[in-house]
Amino acid sequence: MSILVVEDEEKIALFLKKGLLEAGYEVHWRSNGLEALEAAREKSFDLVVLDVMLPGMSGLEVCRQLRENRRRFPILMLSARGAVPDKVAGLDSGADDYLSKPFAFEEFLARVRALLRKQELAAETRLEYGDLSMDLVTRKVERAGSPIELSNKEFSLLEYLLRQQGHPVTRAMIAEHVWNLDFRSTTNVIEVYINYLRKKVDAEHPVKLIRTERGRGYQLGVSA
Predict the structure, then answer these.
(1) Cross-strand pairs, 50
(2) What secondary structure does DSSP assign to 170-222, as a single string?
(3) Is 64 helix (H, G, I), strand (E, B) or coil?
(4) Model-level pTM greater than 0.90?
(5) Helix, strand, or coil here: 100?
(6) What are phi and psi of 137, to 5 degrees?
């Protein structure tokens, strides 16, 4: 599980990072809102811990922009302001939970676990990578909030790439899992459908998600 901690006070950030690492989570730290938004564009996180008082851009604005960009990971907001109106403002900006400072780390960790459990339940019917999302129940696919119309086979191919995101898949693997066939090197049907997906998923966006890994196959993920 990958967690983004957005906190400008280094002492607090290191305290949270140390505790989360000891609990077995992968942790990334950013100290301001702009860096947090950039990190969220480059990587898909399982949870964001977001301080309200940040330099340059408030945590409330960061939260609003993340939600406007269809980032669906849970957000746990932290703030020294614990009055009811402050909590309401945080939740209305798009946060899933609000924790007032100072707090016991045990409570913080329990809230993290609760939000991740909720996210895992939602993930059973939803696949995401960056600004690309797929609802397995409604079969709706969106990128940056815009709907993408796919044929049944295109949907199955994209679903397989999403499930294997970050890992290259060979043409033989695609043939087996998407077409339920043994791979035959003489057919170019996989390349044809990969091109269909590229036109629908990547053509209108500067960041290309469907990559060709020379000698290995294809991979869903941005270039390192």
Answers:
(1) 6, 77
(2) -HHHHHHHHS-S---TT--HHHHHHHHHIIIIITT-SS--EEEETTTEEEES-
(3) helix
(4) no
(5) strand
(6) -85, -55
Q: Which domains does the chain have, with CATH numbers?
A: 2-123 (3.40.50.2300), 127-220 (1.10.10.10)
Whole-angstrom Cα distance, residue 53 to residue 55?
7
- Residue linked to tokens 């941005």: 222
Which value, to the nearest 10 degrees, does the dihedral of the CA atoms of residues 17, 18, 23, 25 take? 40
In what helix (H) or strand (E) does residue 126 lie, and over which residues does it extend? strand 126-129
8, 69, 25, 31 alpha-carbon torsion, rounded to 10°: -10
Give the phi and the psi of residue 52 in degrees, each rounded to 5. -75, -45
Q: Which two structure tokens, joined as six digits, stand for 167?
A: 């890992």
Phi-psi region of 35 (alpha: psi -120 to 50; beta: other; left: phi over 0): alpha
Cα 111 to chain centroid distance, Å, stands at 19
**99: how many CB neighbours lie within 10 A of its CB?**
20
Per-residue pLDDT in tens (0 to 9) along the chain, 224 residues: 899 999 999 999 999 999 999 999 999 999 999 999 999 888 888 899 999 999 989 999 999 999 887 677 899 999 988 888 888 999 999 999 999 999 999 999 999 999 988 877 766 788 889 899 999 889 999 999 899 999 999 999 999 999 888 888 998 899 888 887 665 655 688 999 999 999 999 999 999 999 998 888 999 987 65
